[in-house]
């Protein structure tokens, strides 16, 4: 890492990461361990394979997993936050049912889990920083060209300008309100820690372990098997590499100058046709890769805070640009060969 300066949380400190066995969270842990931190990661069910993976990569004693099966319990985080200097909350509680019948109930579920963590963190004087993983949908989801997102952009559900019930998205509203209500809680309660959030767009890249769910990467690996479900994503999103996203989380944790900020992880627009062309170049013998049939245009617009995020990546990790789409996809499928 470059740009070493006085850290708000110095290396060798212990950091709590929730949802440790997730796609983004596992990369955050990997970057933290690379930087010299020790990590405690929450999981909802036992995952000895995860402890083994990080022990093999970084040595024993650097990572430990702890069980937190239910974020809704008022004291769910009381024990796991003890003795940590910082927290990165990746696994915001989301309803597990595939179809959400009551969006308002789902939002309340998510917000309660977030508030439980914030309350537990505020009770520990050791906690200096808390970082939340949000989503670009919390800032709004552009539907056409010429959009502009800024640090003050929020999804319409935050301003209560809700759509008719049939058109509401539980995922979008949970993500938007999960972040928005966290900021409101911090503003009201003035805890003893700094609070930052990271808003990733469509995240691609390498999955660190076969037992880790690939999240958005699952759509890309599905293309290798002929699954055309990704083509139904409209409007077409922007992408970001998972390592870039993970690094931004660690910057939000340790960088003294990042205070009360929303960091936007957004590399640029893409089309599924671009993805298909790259995949066919990487696996020329794979006849299962489908061909797009629709006329598609990338979602062109401006994510103003992305320049701030890239500047931080350059300052602390020496990156002069976001990871390109082709590089991200190559890393992602290098061990996935389907014929």
Automatic annotation (TrEMBL):
Keyword Signal applies: no
Sequence ranges assigned to domain NAD-dependent epimerase/dehydratase in this UniProt record: 15-189
UniProt KW keywords: Oxidoreductase
GO function terms (MF aspect): oxidoreductase activity, acting on the CH-OH group of donors, NAD or NADP as acceptor
Record InterPro entries: Epimerase_deHydtase (IPR001509), NAD(P)-bd_dom_sf (IPR036291), NAD(P)_dehydrat-like (IPR050425)
The keyword Ribosomal protein belongs to this UniProt entry's keyword annotation: no
Domain of life: Eukaryota
One Pfam assignment: Epimerase
Family: Belongs to the NAD(P)-dependent epimerase/dehydratase family. Dihydroflavonol-4-reductase subfamily.
Protein name: 3-beta hydroxysteroid dehydrogenase/isomerase
